[in-house]
Amino acid sequence: MSEIHIERPHNLGLPRARGVATQWMAQARERWGLQFEHEPAAAAATTSADGQEPEDRIRFGGMGAEGTVQVGATRFVVHLSLGGLMAALAPTVEEKMTRKLDALLVQEAAAGG
Questions:
Q1: 2-107: which CATH number, 3.30.310, 3.40.50, 1.20.58, 3.30.420?
Q2: CB atoms < 10 A from the CB of 15, how many?
């Protein structure tokens, strides 16, 4: 089993960050066949590490991968576990996920909402 952790700060606010998460989920569903379960902040009862910021929690899985994404007003946190043959691809998966998340965050920040 291989573990991936990606954390990215941003200044989008929760509504725009949710939009980025929705884009990422749609692309991942199409490309890798992942399935998602989205719990909005109120239902997830999840807060940031400092206990201040409400965060959505998205659980996902499929094709030898499972994990969570925490979506907050000022950060994204991705935890991903890769099993079986996918574990061998961990560096590539991490690089692609990081690049895609960074691109979506930059695109949304540039849009200015």
A1: 3.30.310
A2: 9
- The domain locations on the chain are 2-107
Average pLDDT rounded to a whole number, residues 82-99: 92
For the chain, give the DSSP string: -EEEEEEEE--S-HHHHHHHHHHHHHHHHHHH--EEEEE-HHHHTEE-TTS-SEEEEEEEEETTEEEEEEEESSEEEEEEEE-GGGGGGHHHHHHHHHHHHHHHHHHHHHH--
Contacts of 98 (CB under 8 A, 6+ apart): 6
| φ/ψ of residue 3, rounded to 5 | -110, 140
Residue 14 φ/ψ, nearest 5 degrees: -65, -45
Average pLDDT of every residue of the chain: 89
